[in-house]
Write a structure and sequence with these properties.
alpha+beta, Jelly Rolls, DNA-binding, homodimer, 2 domains
DNA sequence: TCAAAACGATAACATTTGTTAATAAGTCAC
DNA sequence: GTGACTTATTAACAAATGTTATCGTTTTGA
């Protein structure tokens, strides 16, 4: 059971539906009794993990809104958003111990539960079946990025905005437009135009 | 050792450098002594796995050139190319047993070694340490898609073409231009223009 | 070998997005 | 509250790409 928990802890980021999110939250509640964590309240626009730093924590979002981003040619690009009930880490950095290519920061003031890598590792060592855990985690993350990838290359920015509006209206309503634009791969000006032409 | 082999069998797709490819090929040679396979010679434009079908094979490319693609709004979009010495499967379908979102087909006439899922599973069952194997496989695939994803959202089509020309000139030389265009996310007409203006 | 198909270049025009700038409304911190 | 900053809209123009079509050339497959 803990195996699934951990898979969810690290996997349930990305745009997931209500059912999946509730399921993941249940799992994460149990997990919080197994691995120690520290609660942390932060304001908006606080950088939790700067690009270039090695990730040593997983952030569970009690309340608030986070985003994963990077800067290329002076442009700020948003990769994903994360909401309450989800868990976030710069996964490649977290597992490799390499500097993160992406930054993680708050969009809104947030309350987080911070799990340290050392504590997670200690837990995994006590549970040898964690081999399956890691596989599930890595696999789910792969699927997540795969779908993000496909959505970017399949559709025009305009179509992607419309799909987002249909499927995740709460995202569109809540996320500042210039972040949404960088997530859609366009400029804020262009997003404003798309919105205005119906 | 077999663990790493299998990881490579499934991971060494994507644009990898010469060193990595040689290493992977060595691994795959050993692997061919462990898991039964069938050799298959096919012409160009042969669909090995149609979109919608469940993947039950991994294709090792003895010679030739394959591509992974899907059709959206009547447009044919190339996700990745695969060359000799690489192994290919529609990974999500292969592991989930779900219908594949993508098709796999030959670009050039190719000679393939076909490993059946049942044979791979039988091998994994005989080697309980395969837990690590699957993790490595899934993780590597994730990194692969992650970087494909980042390259798509970071750079303009023109910049991506130039980078491809610098890093993988053999790809540009060998792959028909209209496939390259769909890989870069543009029309053949637009690629032709980019090439002509320098 | 030869007809059909595939491929790539080019042109003309439409559409979309980027860029820069001005403006107005909203928010935050003091 | 108030001034500074942030955010979103709109306009005008530039740049890039899409769309459609034509035209040689090459390749393919029978």
């Amino acid at each position: 059971m803990q195996i699934i928990n951990y898979a969810y802890l690290c996997c349930c980021n990305g745009n997931i539906n209500q059912k999946k999110r509730r399921s993941a939250q249940k799992m994460l509640q149990k997990l919080q009794q197994l691995i120690p964590f520290e609660e942390r309240a932060v304001g908006r626009r606080v950088v939790l993990l700067p690009a270039g730093k090695v990730a040593d924590s997983v952030f569970y979002i009690q309340s608030g809104l986070l985003r994963e981003s990077f800067v290329e040619d002076g442009k700020d690009i948003t990769v994903q958003f994360f909401f309450e009930g989800q868990a976030v880490a710069s996964i490649e950095s977290f597992w490799n111990g390499k500097p993160s290519e992406v930054a993680i920061e708050t969009v809104e003031p947030s309350v987080l539960k911070v799990f340290k890598k050392a504590d997670i590792q200690a837990y995994l060592e006590q549970h040898p079946e964690s081999g399956i855990t890691i596989a599930q985690f890595a696999y789910s993350r792969m699927i997540n990025y795969y779908h993000l990838f496909l959505s970017r290359i399949k559709d025009s920015p305009e179509k992607r905005y419309k799909l987002l509006l249909e499927e995740y209206p709460e995202m569109v309503a809540r996320i500042p437009q210039h972040y949404l634009a960088s997530y859609l791969g366009i400029t804020p000006v262009s997003l404003s135009r798309i919105r205005s032409r119906k």
